[in-house]
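Thread: "does anyone have the structure for this chain?"

Original post by V.I.:
We have the sequence but no experimental structure in hand. Need at least a predicted one for the grant figures.
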Amino acid sequence: MKEKELSHLDENGKASMVDISEKNITDRTAKASALVIFPESVFKQLRAQDFLSKKGSIFQIAEIAGIQAVKKTADLIPLCHQLHLSKIKIDIQVEDDGLKVLCIVKCSGKTGVEMEALTGASVAALTIYDMCKALSHEIVISTVQLEHKSGGKHEFDR
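Reply from O.Q.:
Generated one for you, tokens below.
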């Protein structure tokens, strides 16, 4: 079995954008998640307010921020390719002591959308933190991770 190598280094060990010119165009999907965990009293207060703040709906603003972030991924992550995205969906789910952010991204292209999905989930979680930090700085963003990817050489499901 061939040993795996870092894809963003050239033969001299310098940072390099991966050449995707010879790859086939395929439908690609990625799903990433992030957890936002609150102190119990803060979460009770947010639930009682239906997750509305003086700044507006925490969910709606975080969803918009996540969508914007997905579209800016190539500007934020230096060696990411610009992609023609066909779908971005941010879904925020209430869990026991926090919120789970899911970000699904799709495109038809020569490279995958994992970084876009991870960026969307991360920025949506950061936006939730920003909107709630007046209540507590004990809020924790954790477990940002890829859940699924398909359409390229390697499929992945967590």
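V.I.: this helps a lot. The helical segments are 40-48, 58-71, 73-76, 114-132.
O.Q.: and The mean pLDDT is 91.
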